[in-house]
Every structure is written in structure tokens, then in C-alpha cells.
Amino acid sequence: AKELELRGIVKEFPGVKALDGVNLKVKRGTVHALMGENGAGKSTLIKILSGVYKKDGGEIYIDGKPVSIHSPMDSQKLGISVIYQEFALVPELSITQNIFLGKEMKGTGPIVNRKDMEKKARELIGRFNLNISENKKVGDCTVGQQQMIEIAKAIGSNSWVIVMDEPTSAITEAEKEKLFEIIQELKEQGMAIIYISHRMSEIFEIADEITVLRDGKYVMSSPVSEVTEDMIIKSMVGRELSDVFS
Ligand code: ADP
Ligand code: MG
Ligand code: MG
């Protein structure tokens, strides 16, 4: 697959239209920032992409073909991994067990036995320079390390789309630097990364494209190189829009 597109996505909760015709298109080998103020609809959009919420309208396409996502398993099968702000890791289990959770039982895919899983887990955490044993309990790892384990898990499941929901909200500056190095590497390897944030400096550091939402509405998409910080802020808060994007 080369590109993922969400078009005209609508989602209503009782009393609130969380998404009202939202578009997002992300290509392999790029980082696409999804921005918007608190409540703009960013998390709702990715929960639709990951099969957690059912959409009320719109379509999802991979390479121009419509796909159905009715469950997290559908999303995973299409090669999409979402890393939430609240991690989906199991603290009592080891890093290896977390990275390959469920794979052992199913016995499907390229990785089937414990030895192979440990080897692959070692490779992955080695790549991330974590300097911890793959047998360490996830509950004993720092938030930054858990972030890396989540990414390793996404890579371990052969995903080509990785969504990160505000990944730097609870990590140290040093961990952030490492995360950005890893994102850069993933991008060069052809991953498509959706990067949710409301930190402007990060967008200019890491993203190639940007999409802005406001109150559940799609406001704009652009290459990051063609927008200024001022333009992004104005589109997020909705002032002087006609002056900025005419
Ligand atoms: P963001 O991630 O951009 O901060 P959200 O997607 O979390 O925004 O929320 C968008 C809107 O949808 C908000 O008005 C929020 O209160 C509402 N919302 C999100 N999830 C639910 C839910 N499960 N039930 C009802 N309303 C929700
Ligand atoms: Mg929020
Ligand atoms: Mg959110």
C-alpha cells in the first residue's frame, strides 16, 4: 500500500458533532501532522481509523480503494497501528510479551515461537537503544521507554501506518530527541506516520504535511514548508481565516 485517505468523515455523539466532513491523506515515507485545539476531533478521527468508533459518514481508502474498518482487528490487518496517549501495554508482562501479544497463540505470520520472538524483540529494542533487557516488565519501564515499546510493537506487527497521539506529552526532552530520531528512521523506511500534537515547534521539526481541524471541521491541509506558525494558529482558532487562506 502507498497511501491512506480519510474523506468526509462524520461522527456524532449525543449532542455533539465531533467530526463533520473531515479529510486526511497520508503517504508512505512522510510524517503528517494532525493539529487542532483540545476538542477539535483529533482523537475521534483516529479512533475511527483504528476501528474503536464506528463512523456515521465518509469513506476510508487505501490506494484509492474503499476499505471497511469495523473493529481494531480490521485496522490492524490493513497495517494500521495507533499508539494512544494511554498506552495499551500490559504492565505485568515483559517487553517481548507485549510486543508480540497474541501472536504466540494464533501461530500465524512469520513469528511463531518464543525464541524467535525474543530475538526479534531484542533486535527492535536494540534499534531503539533502550539498554534494557527484553525480559523486563513493562511496568518497570519509563513512559519514554514504553512509548518506544509501543512503536516496536507496531513495527513487529508489520504496520505501514503508525499513528501517534500526542507522543511527547509525558516524556523527557532526551526521550523526545530519541523519538524524533526514530520517527525520521521510520519515515526513511517508508512508513506513513500520523503525528497528533498541539505543539507548534514539533510540527516544524518533524512533519512534512499538516492538516488542521477546528470544532470537528476540516480547515486545511498543506505542506509544512508552505505554512507559517501564524497561519496554523489562525486556522486552529478560526480568526481572520478569509484573510489568511484566500
Ligand atoms: P481532541 O482529541 O482533538 O482533543 P476529541 O476527539 O477527543 O478531540 O473530542 C472531539 C469532541 O467529541 C469533543 O467535543 C468531545 O467532548 C467529544 N467526544 C469525544 N469522545 C466522546 C465520547 N466517547 N462521547 C461523547 N462525546 C465525545
Ligand atoms: Mg483532547
Ligand atoms: Mg485527543
UniProtKB/TrEMBL annotation:
User: Does the record carry Acyltransferase as a key word?
Assistant: no
Entry GO MF terms: ATP binding; ATP hydrolysis activity; transmembrane transporter activity
Gene Ontology biological-process entries: monosaccharide transmembrane transport
Q: What keywords is this UniProt entry annotated with? A: ATP-binding, Cell membrane, Membrane, Nucleotide-binding, Repeat, Sugar transport, Translocase, Transmembrane, Transmembrane helix, Transport
The protein's location, in the record's own words, is: Cell inner membrane; Cell membrane
ABC transporter domain location is 4-240
GO CC, sorted alphabetically, is: plasma membrane
Q: What protein name applies here?
A: Ribose transport system ATP-binding protein
- Native organism is Lactonifactor longoviformis DSM 17459
Report the portion of the entire protein shown.
356 to 601 of 856
